[in-house]
């Protein structure tokens, strides 16, 4: 089975622009989560989606949004980019929601905001 | 918010030696997991230990959990250069009931010299 794929892998944007990142989960997985990783704050939870519904959202401003499609693919959008949004954005998928379901992570999208 | 805090932040050892990393967390947990990350790439799930377990083994990995002290340790025996990576502990976040919103510690950066 193919793993979690994220596109693009690298991205350079300018302050004030917006960006959309994509995540394709493992086939059959219906839950997708997003995380932001920075040197200063470490790994932080952004959102969790299951069956096209956002289940949970982390403590991030409204500039960060996401969605999940009927094929379980997910996108996250960051509007009005700030320098501090430079980070590695990781997507993870699992079969379903629940403490028993292991998360499988993608390779990440490295976003640089200049 | 950081739930797990790893110690030490960095560890440098020779091939063949054992590496021990510790993690402390703040709230009660259902389970605790350890992940590995190679040089800013995706996370790889290593092992999960449930709150009613005290010790778990997987290959060269040994994890212990002390819920009374809210701490866990990861031991890698007979380390290899390929074990060079950052190691994170993670617990289920405040939203509960799902692995999809993990709270990660800041990680231990392990360097294994050949």
Description:
- The complex is a heterodimer of chains A (114) and B (114).
- Chain A has 114 residues and is mostly beta strands.
- Chain A is 0% helix and 53% strand.
- Chain A contains no helices and 11 strands.
- Chain A starts with a strand and ends with a strand.
- The relative contact order of chain A is 0.33.
- The mean pLDDT of chain A is 93.
- Helices cover 0% and strands 54% of the residues of chain B.
- Chain B is globular and about 40 Å long.
- The termini of chain B are far apart.
- The model of chain B has no long low-confidence stretch (mean pLDDT 89).
Number of extended strands of chain A: 11
Bin the helical content of chain A: under 10%
Q: What fraction strand of chain B?
A: over 45%
- Low-confidence spans of chain B: none
Q: What is the number of beta strands of chain B?
A: 11
Unreliable residue stretches of chain A:
none
Number of helices of chain A: 0
- Quote the distance from N terminus to C terminus of chain B: 36 Å
Can you write the helix and strand succession of chain A as a string? Answer: EEEEEEEEEEE
Mean pLDDT of chain A: 93
Summarize the structure.
The complex is a heterodimer of chains A (114) and B (114). Chain A is mainly β.
Write the layout of secondary structure elements.
The complex is a heterodimer of chains A (114) and B (114).
Chain A: E1 5-7, E2 10-13, E3 19-24, E4 31-38, E5 42-50, E6 53-57, E7 64-68, E8 74-78, E9 87-94, E10 104-105, E11 109-113
Chain B: E1 5-7, E2 10-14, E3 19-24, E4 31-37, E5 43-50, E6 55-58, E7 61-66, E8 71-76, E9 85-92, E10 102-104, E11 108-113
Parallel strand pairs in B: 2-11
Antiparallel strand pairs in B: 1-3, 3-8, 4-5, 4-9, 6-7, 7-8, 9-10, 9-11
């Amino acid at each position: 089975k193919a793993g979690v794929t994220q596109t693009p892998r690298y991205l350079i944007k300018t302050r004030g622009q917006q960006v959309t990142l994509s995540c394709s989960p493992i086939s059959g997985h219906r839950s997708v989560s997003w995380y932001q990783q920075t040197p200063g704050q470490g790994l932080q939870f952004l959102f969790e989606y299951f069956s096209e519904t956002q289940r949970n959202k982390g403590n991030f401003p409204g500039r960060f949004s996401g969605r999940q499609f009927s094929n379980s693919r997910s996108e996250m959008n960051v509007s009005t980019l700030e320098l501090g949004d430079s980070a590695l954005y990781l997507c993870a998928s699992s079969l379903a929601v629940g403490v028993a379901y292991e998360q499988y992570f993608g390779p990440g999208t490295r976003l640089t905001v200049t | 918010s950081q739930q797990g805090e790893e110690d030490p932040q960095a560890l440098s050892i020779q091939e063949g030696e054992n590496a021990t990393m510790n993690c402390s967390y703040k709230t009660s947990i259902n389970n605790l997991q350890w992940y590995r990350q190679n040089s800013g790439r995706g996370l790889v799930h290593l092992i999960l230990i449930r709150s009613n377990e005290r010790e778990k083994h997987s290959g060269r990995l040994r994890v212990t959990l002390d819920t009374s002290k809210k701490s866990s340790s990861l031991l890698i025996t007979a380390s290899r250069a390929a074990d060079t990576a950052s190691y994170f502990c993670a617990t289920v976040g405040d939203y509960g009931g799902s692995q999809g919103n993990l709270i990660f510690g800041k990680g231990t950066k392990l360097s294994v010299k050949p």
